[in-house]
Amino acid sequence: MSNVPVLLTYDLGERITAFSTTRHGGVSQGSYGEFNINEYCGDAPEAIRENRRLLCDRLGIEPSRLVLPHQVHGRVVRKIDEDFLLLTEEERQQALEGVDAVMTDVKKVCVGVSTADCIPIIIYDAEHQAACAVHAGWRGTVQRIAQCGVEALADTYGSRPGVLRAVIGPGISLDAFEVGDEVYQAFADAGFCMEHIARHPSSTTQHPKWHIDLWECNRQQLLDCGIPAGLVQVAGICTYQQCDDFFSARRLSINSGRIFTGFVLG
Questions:
Q1: Fewest Cβ atoms closer than 10 Å to its Cβ: which of 23, 81, 143, 261?
Q2: Residue 158: left (phi > 0), alpha (psi -120 to 50), or beta?
Q3: For 261, how many CA atoms within 13 A lie in the half-sphere containing its CB?
Q4: 47 close to 24: Cβ distance less than 8 angstroms
Q5: Phi, psi (deg, nearest 5) at residue 222
Q6: Residues 78, 101: contact at Cβ < 8 Å?
Q7: Angle at 193 between CA 188 and CA 199, to 5 degrees
């Protein structure tokens, strides 16, 4: 069996390598198997180190140029520049604490976010050779973290939303994302058009629950920012339904691996 990481790749342009990891091609075991590089979910440190090495080998970069934030379901966007790469490991961890989106215009550095049902998004500016990776769980989606990513690219690099490209990667689907009334109300209070993003399926159960479409919530945010609909891709992969290939916290528990969705500018 090969240990080479199996990646789902996205076509965002000739000068960017954009991808999501699958569960295949690494050395992790059990609910972390096979490929996990997230150090915050309980996997063995030696397996994480080896998986990171394998990914960096495939991407053609040094392990020191792989950047993962510690996410908290917020709306902080962190810029990764050459000065960041000169920081010590401890200083890097401090800079990446509480960060849910990372952006860069530095070549040959891989930045990305971790998910396991939440929605990963990559936003790419070919004009200025910059991109942003966004982690949008339901809380981040309510806080419009995708919009924060677009605005951060514009403020930092001069990105024009009308020419940006974006991809929404594997995450939980409308059919699988069952939520309580309080989550539905959070979206409604935040001004989302509930007729377009929510469904209350008819059910013979005593207490049927709402379902919310996180893919569409985030796609609509990107469109509202000015990205043309034809430049926003949706992978259409439900992690809950395809947990053999992609990690799903709802199916495998939080003590399982994470998908890494990232990019390298070249």
A1: 81
A2: left
A3: 29
A4: no
A5: -65, -40
A6: yes
A7: 80
Give per-residue pLDDT as tens, 88-143. 999 999 999 999 999 999 999 999 999 999 999 999 999 999 999 999 999 999 99
Tell me the residue type at 166. A
β-pairing, 165-168 vs 130-136, is unpaired
DSSP 3-state of 225: coil
Q: Can you give the three-state secondary structure of 53-100, one letter per residue?
A: HHHHHHHCCCHHHEECCECCCCCCEEEECHHHHCCCHHHHHHHCECCC
The bridge status of strand 259-265 relative to strand 16-21 is antiparallel
Which residue's entry shows tokens 């000065």?
A: 83
Predicted model pTM: 0.97
User: What value, to the nearest 5°, has the Cα angle with vertex 233 and ends 231 and 235?
Assistant: 175
> Is the torsion defined by CA of 96, 10, 65, 38 positive or negative?
positive
- Which pair of tokens denotes residue 60? 């053609």
